[in-house]
Structure formats: C-alpha cells, structure tokens
C-alpha cells in the first residue's frame, strides 16, 4: 500500500482550465483571505444581491475567547438579502431561466424528471404562498421529513423566501428522534411525503410523522399543519404494484395533500428581506451528552461560503453536471445539494434511491446517463461498492468525470485508490473534504486543479480558514505533529449558536481551549504541512458517516429493565468505518440471552434509527472502572477488537475484569 509519501499531482489538463491551477496560486489566494478577509469575502459578496448594502467598514466581527466575553461571529451584519432570491431570481435574471437546476432520478430507473431555474422559482413561490396562508411567518420553524424528491428542495427554498427557518430531519430517523427534534424547535408546520422506496424497501414516512406528532401532542406541542406529498402513487414500485394515496391516513384539519393546495397558489411571492445575521436554517447533530444540538446557520455568511466552496472545490463550470449523493437531511445535502450548487446556477442530479438498486452499478449508470462531471459521495458508499466486480464500474462510460469528492469520515487509502483508479481512471482529482454540520461548508480540502493529493489526507485549509493543532495543555503544535484540531478565527459559514442554547454552544465548542473553535476531531500535520484528520477525540462515533454519541446509545440500553449498566465503544468496520460494540451488565434478575440482545438492538433502531443498530452486544458481568468509578473505554475498545495489548491497567479498581471480558467475547465478534 503506497504510504503518505505517495503524492498524486492533479491531471495537467484539469489544472490548466481550473479556477485555481497551481499550489502557488492557492497560496497567494489563501494568504489574501487570511491577511485581508474583509476584502477577500467582500469581493465575493458583491456578486450577490443585497437589498440594504453591506457596510464594508464593519464587514466582520467576532469573539472566540470565552475569558473575554460571550462568543459571537458576525459577517456583513446589518446588510439585508434573501438567499432564495439570490439562488433563483438572480439566476433567472442572468439568463439561466431555461437552464436545468435539477435532474431528478427516481429509485426506479423508469422514474425521472427535470426542473429548470424558472420553473423551480415558480414552484418555490407557490409553496411560499401556501406557507404564508398557513400562518407561517418570518422566524417560525418548519420541520421537514422528506425523501430525495424535488418538493424537498422546493420546501427548503420556500421557507427561506419568507424567512421561515427550516429544520430538516433525515428521513431515516425514528419517530422518537423526530419528535424530540420537533419539540426542541417547536415547529408549527411539518412537510413530508406519504412514503418512498429506497431500493426494494418501502419507507412509510407519513406514518412515522403521525407517531412523532402524537408524541409531541402528549408533551403539549401540537403541530398545526402537516403537508403531505403524495409521492408513492406517481412512481414505479419495485414489485410493479400501484399505490393509491387514499391509503394514507390524514387527520382532518391538520393534514393536507401538497397537490390539493400548491398547484393553485400564485407563482410569484415577494421575498422577505433578511438581515445577514438572521437565522437561515437549523439542523440537528449528535452531542456527546446524548441530547441533539440544534446547529443554527445564518443567512449572509452561509450563502457566500456555500457558493465559494462549491465553485472552487468542485471547480464547477457553467456546462457541467454535478451530482452529490448525500441525503438532503444531512448538512452535505443542505450545502452541496441545494445551496452551493444553486448559488452557482449549477445543474445537478438529485437521486432518490440507493447505490444497489436495481443493480450494484446504479451510481455508474446514473453518471453515464447524465454525463456527470463532478461526483461527490461518502467513503462508506465507496467501500460497499468496492466489494463487487470491477466490471460493474468498467462497463460504463465514466469519461465525463473530472472531480471525485469524498465526505463524512476519513477515507482509507485502499478505498481512495479504488476510487482514483477504477472510477476516476487516474484522470480525476479526488477532493477529500473535511467539515462538519457546524462548519456549514468545507474547511479542509484539496482544490482539484491545484493541490497534489495524498490518499487519506484532507490536505489544506480552504480560503479564510485557519487551522491550529493544540496539545492537551492548549499549547500550539507547530510543524509536524498531532493534536486537537481547532480553528482560531471564523469563516463566513461557521454556525452562530445552538438553537435556544447559547450556553451549550459556548461550553461545547469554546471552553476547552479559549480563543479557538474546537472541532472535536484530532489531526496530524505532516512534513509538507498536509493535515490528516484522525477521528473524534470525544465520545462520538461515526457509523457510515452518521455521527452519534456513546451516551445516547447507552441511555437507550439502560432503559431496558434487565440492564443495569452499559458502555458503548466504536469498533472499526470494513464498510461502515465504525460500528457499535456494546457492553451490558444485567440487573440481579435480568437474564442475558438472545432475546435480550434482540430487544436491545430493536430499541436502538426505534429510538435513533435503523442506521444506529449495534453490531455486537456483549455480556459484561462487570465493567473496567477506575477507583473513582470512571469506565475506562480505552480498555473496552481493546476488548472490542480482541487486542490483548491493553496497556497500563493499574488504575483499575478490579483488574480481573479485563480477563473476564476477553474470555466472554461473543463468537464472531
Ligand atoms: C464529523 C462531522 C461534513 C458533512 C458530513 C458529516 C467527520 C467528516 C471528514 C473527512 C475525516 C471527516 C469528522 C467530523 N468527518 N468529513 N473528510 N475526513 N473525518 O457531518 O455529521 O457533522 O460529522 O465527521 O469526525 O467532525 P457531521
């Protein structure tokens, strides 16, 4: 396996036509973005429409030092704009009205459609008017639980047009998780679909929403309106059966079908002018205490940064077709399916299904069908596709591809090479983009025409981003070394707060190292200055790119009356990256058996979502604890991978526990 010394230069043909075509050009632009951030971002901001002009004398202010006062970040404060206006009206005015904004590709290959910028604008205005009719006003939260269909994007943009704050929840989360999020943001209106096919699986989205809304009502919060897209009746089911929307249970007075109210609404809607620092959307991400955090992004900075990263990181040119496979329920879907591409008048593919339906070459079929130039997916998808015959890739014409993106977790060199050689034919650049829900956009990444690639390294900071590595005591590590990955100043799309909880925002991200935004990840800097993200340094797990906390899973396990204590650690997994390995201690009367294991796995699926199902549940008569009672997870991680090299265990209250746990590892774990 080539080591980190192996460096892959960008294809010279790609470099030649790229916006940034050499390391020296990158360095020059980067330096300007750091030395003169107001000028750098100010020039970019001028390409957008501002209803109230930007005050360039006070372009951006911030405080990252908790010892000096409250944490805040402001960009272009006081200027007003509307992101929907900039994404749609501005592009239509600039001659892109007939340009395709989205090619929609359904789960079934027979289902597809397209939408131009002009038509998208009309649909957005219609739905914006519907939202207004339903009493939704600037600042109100709208919950969205949608499959990958065009109405999801229409919904998001309609919210932004009237200044409502959308709060999407990935439609793979359980009713419990969804209810918790609706309650936290006090959503007044919910948008969903009757259901959707993912491969051969039918997702009953409306019924999950019904359960979630019922749970909210029990807690005293009533969702006033639920708009339902009748989607199943218009698509081809894998079995060829016909679905009728009459089957969808609708609660009179609350639930209404999209097709019964949207088509007759007016196709124009004057945009609400929003301050640059007004909330744009919120999106929940897991927190290490178990309670999800409502990350809040604001309007102006997010718009400018999403647009800029999309342009440079994918080197998007006007006739290109771009495809990001991420679900819109995640931040990648927000910034790089919706906001970034539309801000650049791009043409994108929106795909509803899985990589495996109807065959394991669906991704490559779609790349060929739409002649995709930039393809953006996750390492877990790459790893699951690597298992199949090369022929599934090689039989398709993938010559349109120029840039291949990776996001969500570190990409292992083996997957990187497969992606580079087999999919990219050694002609394409791979952009390994490191970022977070909180960062709003890419923060570490190579640029495809300029930065030589090292497999597994997210390379260099994007413009305006200043990464720092710190040791445990908060001392900066200069040059080569490994430490906590932090940032010493904000870029325009850094989250501004956690919804209704600025205290938690300050403690989670700004308290450990005053003066820095703390990512929660570790990273290493090599001799060339490249950054290698090594993974979470907190109690978070990344399963197939889904972030979750050990605490939230432990809380679910201990809810079972047979369980007295639980500890969850991550174990490396060949496809998912990491998987959940759970240790449970039963109560005096509890019995550890197959039934309990099944119950616990089911509980995690139901409370969080199917993607969170644990791989292993091990009986732990006792857990390795220090004398002060702290569980030593380091040791549990060793047991999970059956590595006897556990290191120093002298601080354990009872060290015999370790041998016991090694001996009782379940077969095949
Ligand atoms: C966490 C953020 C960014 C959108 C998807 C996930 C990990 C993400 C990379 C990468 C190494 C990565 C980090 C980060 N991560 N991208 N290219 N290399 N690690 O968003 O759910 O907020 O998760 O994902 O651990 O902190 P998220």
In short:
The protein is an alpha/beta fold and 669 residues long. It is built from 20 helices and 30 strands. The strands form eight sheets. Strands 12-11-8-6-7-14-15-23 form an eight-stranded mixed beta sheet, sandwiched between helices. The protein has a seven-stranded mixed beta sheet with strand order 5-4-17-16-18-19-20, sandwiched between helices. Strands 21-22-24-25 form a four-stranded antiparallel beta sheet.
Report on the architecture of this protein.
It holds the Pfam family AMP-binding_C. Residues 94-496 form the AMP-dependent synthetase/ligase domain. Its EC number is 6.2.1.1. Residues 26-86 form the Acetyl-coenzyme A synthetase N-terminal domain. Residues 552-630 form the AMP-binding enzyme C-terminal domain. The protein has 669 residues and is α/β, with parallel strands linked by helices. Helix content is 31%, strand content 22%. It contains 20 helices and 30 strands. The chain has an 8-stranded mixed sheet, sandwiched between helices. β9 (196-198) and β10 (201-203) form a beta hairpin. α4 runs antiparallel to α5, α10 (299-313) crosses α11 and α13 crosses α15 (413-423). The protein is globular. The mean pLDDT is 96. 5'-O-[(S)-butoxy(hydroxy)phosphoryl]adenosine binds next to α11, β20, β24 and β25.
């Amino acid at each position: 396996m080539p080591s980190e010394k192996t460096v892959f230069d960008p294809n010279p043909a790609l470099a030649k036509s790229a916006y940034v075509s050499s390391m020296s050009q990158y360095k020059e632009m980067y330096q300007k973005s750091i030395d003169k951030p107001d000028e750098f971002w100010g020039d970019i901001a001028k390409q957008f429409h501002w209803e109230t002009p930007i005050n360039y004398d006070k372009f951006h202010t911030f405080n990252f030092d908790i010892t000096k006062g409250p944490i805040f970040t402001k960009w272009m404060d006081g200027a007003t704009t509307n992101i929907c206006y900039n994404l749609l009206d501005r592009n239509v005015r600039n001659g892109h009205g007939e340009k395709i904004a989205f090619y929609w590709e359904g789960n079934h290959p027979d289902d597809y459609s397209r939408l131009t910028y002009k038509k998208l604008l009309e649909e957005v205005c219609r739905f914006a008017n519907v939202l207004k009719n339903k009493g939704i006003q600037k600042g109100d939260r709208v919950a969205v639980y949608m499959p990958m269909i065009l109405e999801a994007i229409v919904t998001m943009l309609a919210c932004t047009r009237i200044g409502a704050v959308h709060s999407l929840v990935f439609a793979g989360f359980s009713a419990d998780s969804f209810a918790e999020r609706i309650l936290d943001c006090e959503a007044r209106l919910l948008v969903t679909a009757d259901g959707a096919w993912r491969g051969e699986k039918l997702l009953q989205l409306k019924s999950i929403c019904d359960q979630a809304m019922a749970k909210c009502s029990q807690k005293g919060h009533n969702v006033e309106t639920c708009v339902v897209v009748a989607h199943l009746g218009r698509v081809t089911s894998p079995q060829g059966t016909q679905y009728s929307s009459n089957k969808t249970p609708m609660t009179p007075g609350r639930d209404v079908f999209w097709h019964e109210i949207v088509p007759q609404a007016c196709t124009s809607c004057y945009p609400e002018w929003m301050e640059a620092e007004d909330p744009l959307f919120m999106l929940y991400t897991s927190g290490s205490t178990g309670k999800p955090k409502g990350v809040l992004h604001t309007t102006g900075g997010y718009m400018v940064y999403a647009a800029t990263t999309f342009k440079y990181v994918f080197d998007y040119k006007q006739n290109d077709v771009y495809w990001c496979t991420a679900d819109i329920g995640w931040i990648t879907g927000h910034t790089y399916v919706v906001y970034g591409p539309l801000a650049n008048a791009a043409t994108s593919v929106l795909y509803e299904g899985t990589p495996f339906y109807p065959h394991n070459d669906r991704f490559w079929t779609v790349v060929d069908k739409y002649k995709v130039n930039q393809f953006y997916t996750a390492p877990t998808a790459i790893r699951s596709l690597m298992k199949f015959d090369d022929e599934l890739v090689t039989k398709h014409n993938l010559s349109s591809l120029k840039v291949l993106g990776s996001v969500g977790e570190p990409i292992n060199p083996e997957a990187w090479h497969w992606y580079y050689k087999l999919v990219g034919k050694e002609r394409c650049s791979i952009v390994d983009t490191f970022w977070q829900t909180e960062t709003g956009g890419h923060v570490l990444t190579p640029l495809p025409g300029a930065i030589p690639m090292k497999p597994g390294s997210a390379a260099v900071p994007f413009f305006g981003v200043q990464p720092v590595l710190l040791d445990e005591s908060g001392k900066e590590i200069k040059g080569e070394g490994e430490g906590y990955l932090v940032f010493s100043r904000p870029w325009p799309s850094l989250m501004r707060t956690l919804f209704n909880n600025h205290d938690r925002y300050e403690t989670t991200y700004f308290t450990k190292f005053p003066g820095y935004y703390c990512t929660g990840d570790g990273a290493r800097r090599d001799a060339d200055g490249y950054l290698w993200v090594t993974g979470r340094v907190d109690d978070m797990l990344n399963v197939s790119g889904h972030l979750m906390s050990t605490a939230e899973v432990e809380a679910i396990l201990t809810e079972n009356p047979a369980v007295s204590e639980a500890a969850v650690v991550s174990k490396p997994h060949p496809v998912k990256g990491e998987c959940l390995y759970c240790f449970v201690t039963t109560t005096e009367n509890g019995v550890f058996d197959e039934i309990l294991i099944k119950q616990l796995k089911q509980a995690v699926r139901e409370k969080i979502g199917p993607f969170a199902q644990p791989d292993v549940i091990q009986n732990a008569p006792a857990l390795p604890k220090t004398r002060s009672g702290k569980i030593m997870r380091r040791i549990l991680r060793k047991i999970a991978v059956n590595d006897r090299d556990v290191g120093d265990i002298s601080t354990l209250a009872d060290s015999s526990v370790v041998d016991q746990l090694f001996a009782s590892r379940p077969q095949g774990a």
